[in-house]
């Protein structure tokens, strides 16, 4: 704030939203369990109205995140009281995305049941596509992932290499492809402007 910048806070629990409000956060993003990346345990349809209620009367805008891919999701978020939405996974398969063709194809082939929350890449629960890597780390006979940031030190080289050589050999079987459960609705490559028009 001293630098004239806004501060946005990402929350997955109502108590976190209350802390953000107390701290003077300018905008709160209420992210549900079905989102990509690091998520909490509460679904989008449950967390958004709770955060909206916590912020009522403060003037702090609430942005809904987690599972937003269509205009129906946008309308639902607004009906829950959110002021807008944060979209993420939706942009992984657009024509302009930097994702390698093999990675995009993994997303296009996946269903919502093909995601998992795993600590195997970052050390914190993170939603991504299931693959041989996530399954190996989930096996109780194998070591547990380290906490963040230590697990990242273990996996950084693998992430870099499977990203750089995404289309080579069996790379996708061990690649870190973070994506939300909406991956089941990401069925074709579109131009970004067409996605925006559709929304």
Number of DSSP helical runs: 7
Main structural class: alpha/beta
The largest sheet, given as strand count, sense and whether it forms a barrel, is: 4 strands, parallel
Number of strands: 7
Uncertain spans, ≥5 residues at pLDDT below 50?
none
Distinctive features:
35% helix; globular; alpha/beta; 3-stranded antiparallel β-sheet; 199 residues; single chain; 4-stranded parallel β-sheet
What order do the helices and strands come in, and which of them pair?
Elements: E1 8-11, H1 14-23, E2 27-31, E3 37-38, H2 44-55, E4 62-65, H3 71-79, E5 84-86, H4 101-109, E6 115-118, E7 126-129, H5 132-138, H6 150-164, H7 192-198
Parallel strand pairs: 1-2, 2-4, 4-5
Antiparallel strand pairs: 3-7, 6-7
Structural summary, described in words:
This protein is an alpha/beta fold. It has 7 helices and 7 strands; from the N terminus they run E-H-E-E-H-E-H-E-H-E-E-H-H-H. The protein has helices at 14-23, 44-55, 71-79, 101-109, 132-138, 150-164, 192-198, and strands at residues 8-11, 27-31, 37-38, 62-65, 84-86, 115-118, 126-129. The strands form 2 sheets. It has a 4-stranded parallel β-sheet. Strands 3-7-6 form a 3-stranded antiparallel β-sheet, covered by helices on one side. Helix 1 (14-23) runs parallel beside helix 2. The longest helix is centred in the last third of the chain and has 15 residues, at 150-164. The protein is globular, with a radius of gyration of 18 Å. The chain starts with 7 loop residues before the first strand and ends with a helix.
